[in-house]
Design goal:
Chain lengths: ~110, ~110
């Protein structure tokens, strides 16, 4: 089972560059989300989607863009990278419902220099 | 605001001993689920245990159990017979019944001493 596949695992960007973090899941989950993890701050929600064509902002959406054209894919775009976006990024997916387990990708460590 | 507080940034435990990680949360909702996730050095987030807020009985999964106090909004994790493989960052989280947004605490780093 592939579960949630997130690429790349590591990335270094220069300030001002743009890039897309890829996320794909093969569990037919309706709900997908992106988090960033920073030391001492836990995981914070960036954007989420409750289904294809529907996205919404989380707690820290500025500087990021998402789209959901299919159930399987939920890419996260950094429009113009800034050093403050240096973080570890996680994609997660789950069935819709508060009792369901969220399945996480293996994370992307992004460094913006 | 939805918040989760883990007041112990770091904890340590001797192998085979028991350790309790604390978590408090704040929500005005009455229907929600609580979770503990483990993050080993590999970065993978692994579900340890979950608890339904409307159930009074504390959840148990093998060596892992919770002490859920709904009125106090407290959800601590007890690890019995600690093993070296339990060393990880542990995150407390909850998920409201109105949606799928997880609210995470800042984590507790657990060291297991051989």
């Amino acid at each position: 089972n592939a579960g949630v596949t997130q690429t790349p695992k590591f990335q270094v960007l220069k300030t001002g560059q743009s890039m897309t973090l890829q996320c794909a899941q093969d569990m037919n989950h309706e709900y997908m989300s992106w988090y960033r993890q920073d030391p001492g701050m836990g995981l914070r929600l960036i954007h989420y989607s409750v289904g294809a064509g529907i996205t919404d902002q989380g707690e820290v959406p500025n500087g990021y863009n998402v789209s959901r054209s299919t159930t399987e894919d939920f890419p996260l775009r950094l429009l113009s990278a800034a050093p403050s976006q240096t973080s570890v990024y996680f994609c997660a997916s789950s069935y819709f419902g508060s009792n369901t387990e969220a399945f996480f990708g293996q994370g992307t460590r992004l460094t913006v220099v | 605001a939805q918040t989760v507080t883990q007041s112990q940034p770091e904890m340590s435990v001797q192998e085979a001993e028991t350790v309790t990680l604390s978590c408090t949360y704040d929500t005005s909702e009455s229907d929600y689920y609580l979770f503990w996730y483990k993050q080993p050095p590999s970065r993978q987030m692994i579900l340890v245990i979950r608890q339904e807020a409307y159930k009074q009985q504390n959840a148990t999964e093998n060596r892992f159990s919770v002490n859920f106090q709904k009125a106090a909004k407290s959800f601590s994790l007890k690890i019995s017979d600690s093993q070296l493989g339990d060393a990880a960052m542990y995150f407390c989280a909850y998920n409201l019944n109105t949606g799928n947004q997880f609210y995470f605490g800042t984590g507790t780093s657990l060291t297991v001493i051989p």
